[in-house]
Amino acid sequence: MPKQNLRVPFGYELPKEKDRERGTIWVYGSFEGYTQQDLLPLLELAEERHFAKLVFYPLHEETLRRMDKRQAEPYYRRVQELEALLEEADPFIDWTIERFEGKRKKYTPADTAFRFMEEKYKSPFFVYVTDEVARKLASYDGFEDWLTKVRLLVTGGGGDPVPALLAKHMNRWERV
């Protein structure tokens, strides 16, 4: 096959529109009682930092029961409410609701969920969690390995002392 030479003006560079978008945010949580006021700061952050994709990962009731030892609304209801919120907000960023736990219909460890999303979505990865969920994740044995692969974006809190694991890896997370 013969080569084709292309002529371009001196100093021409390929457009870098896709280079601006980088990474994926995994929004990991229950989404119980989630409102437009909770969603808007997340969407602003995603647009401000030019993330390529926003992945919402609602936790199944069994996972929430093991994490918090409390009853939660049914999974399908929380997903429907989240979907309605997102359609109402109509964000410019590409978003999806990951229904992995809905298919499993049982407890899913954070490690399994993160491994699933790591294989499916484009890196670099950012995990957007509440302060309460960040504390729960920091208490798990295998989470230190994940802190080297992902960057935590933690909302809320601020007054409580930071868990030892998060204090050790201060450069891997930030409050937003």
Give the helix/strand layout.
Blueprint: H1 17-20, E1 24-29, H2 36-48, E2 53-58, H3 61-68, H4 75-89, E3 94-97, H5 100-104, H6 110-120, E4 125-130, H7 131-138, H8 143-147, E5 150-155, H9 164-168, E6 173-175
Parallel strand pairs: 1-2, 1-4, 2-3, 4-5, 5-6
Tags for this entry?
globular; single chain; 6-stranded parallel β-sheet; 176 residues; alpha/beta; Rossmann fold; 9 helices
Overview of this protein structure:
With 176 residues, the protein is an alpha/beta fold. The protein has a single domain (19-175), classed as Rossmann fold (3-Layer(aba) Sandwich). Helices cover 42% and strands 18% of the residues. It contains nine helices and six strands; from the N terminus they run αβαβααβααβααβαβ. Strands 3-2-1-4-5-6 form a six-stranded parallel sheet. β5, α9 and β6 form a beta-alpha-beta unit. The model has no long low-confidence stretch (mean pLDDT 90).
